[in-house]
Amino acid sequence: MQEKSKLFLLPLLFLLAVHVGAGGGGGGGGRTIRNGWSNPSTLNNTYIALQAWKSAIKDDPKGLLNSWVGSNVCDYKGVFCQDSSVTGIDLNHGGLEGILVKELSLLKDITLLHLNSNKFTGTIPDSLKDLFALTELDLSNNQFSGPFPTVILQIPNLVYLDLRFNLFSGPIPELVFTKNLDAILLNNNNFEGQIPQSLGNSPASVINLANNKLTGDIPISFGYSSTGLKEILFLNNQLSGCIPQGIGMWSDLQVFDASFNSLMGHIPDSISCLEDIEVLNVAHNELSGELPDLVCELKSLMNLSVAYNFFSGFSQECGKLYGRNVGFDFALNCIPGREMQRPEPECDMIPGGSLSCLRIPSMKSFSCGAMLRSPNSLIP
Q1: Less packed terminus of the chain by CB within 10 Å, N or C?
Q2: What is the pLDDT of residues 119-174, one digit of tens each?
Q3: pLDDT digits (tens, 9 = 90+) for 21-61
Q4: Cα 167 to Cα 189: distance, rounded to the nearest angstrom
């Protein structure tokens, strides 16, 4: 690692090193597209930022940073440039051990920062809010800790946020689901508390909240705003209450997984509106009632798991799923005459028997396209 004192002996080196011409980075460096001169001040700041970060890396088992020498930052391994400006950094699977430094805010042109599968620790510097060009931030599979890094939500153009497999804890802020994020990946942390009511406001196509310590109900707002959601995962939390009727409003939904929670009541009839649903997993909950045709008739269904609940039966249409090559797991419920069901004593007292989940009495009385205009109209 270079000494920090060398970081300030740079301006003349940069003016000599910057040049115009075609060609990629050498020695395994990042891809470079040079179409013109870049501001020497910007390049100088970029060099300062990367060398400051390099000095904060305690272990580099794969030697990824060996090429981070000299003023030509576009030749650094994992650094990607366009017009001699650093526009991306990808150090995925590097095994790097260290921290993020405040000088990273000097990377004014960076659009993506991918640090998947390293050993970065600590918290996220407040200065990252100044990365105005950043659209993709992947900090997954590291050892970051502390509360949700709200500074990330101040990055104005961010659309992809991946914080999976870290040690973040505390509540998820309401603001997360009000930002213009297309992917919100927060699974496998230690987040706790209730899911924010703003969930229904998110324009994201993918939301993953799995494997945390979230409690309470799935917000009733779920499904009543944007219809662009394709995947949502709640699995392996401590959620309770009902599956909201608004789930049927996610007309583009392809994957819904709320397994390994403590959800009760019936599967809402509005699920019949999910014409694109491929994976529906509500296994390992405390759901009850009869599994209706409305669910089993879903034409895009590829996998349906209702195992380890308290369902009392399923219709003839559900029995046809095997003939459609649909994976169907209904083990350990309370279905008479079926194999691998719960012992009768366990079925004598259905969990949540007194729980009142809002249901639409007859599916024939509404059109999915016009269904449930607002959650307020459904509150008795």
Answers
A1: C
A2: 999 999 999 999 999 999 999 999 999 999 999 999 999 999 999 999 999 999 99
A3: 333 333 335 544 433 334 566 778 999 999 999 999 999 99
A4: 5
From the number of C-beta atoms within 10 Å of its C-beta (0-12, 13-18, 19+), residue 313 rates as middle
**DSSP reduced 3-state for 168:** strand
Whole-model pTM: value is: 0.86
Give the gyration radius of the chain's Cα atoms: 26
Tokens of 296: 């089993």
**Nearest of 238, 186, 252, 243 to residue 219 by alpha carbon:** 243
The residue type at 198:
S
- Give SS3 for 170: strand
CB burial class (10 A; 0-12, 13-18, 19+) of residue 361? exposed
Q: List own/partner pairs for 225-231 with CB under 8 A and 24 or more apart.
A: 225/200, 225/201, 226/201, 226/202, 227/251, 227/252, 228/203, 228/204, 228/252, 229/202, 229/204, 229/205, 229/253, 230/205, 230/206, 230/254, 230/255, 230/276, 231/205, 231/206, 231/207, 231/255
- DSSP one-letter code for 323: G
Structure token digits, residue 39 = 């501001």
234, β-bridge pairs: none
Q: How far is CA 184 from the centre of its chain?
A: 3
CA distances, 265 to each of 151, 220, 270, 292 (Å): 39, 15, 14, 13
Which residues neighbour 374 within 8 Å (Cβ) at sequence distance 6 or greater? Answer: 224
H helices present in 102-250, as ranges: none
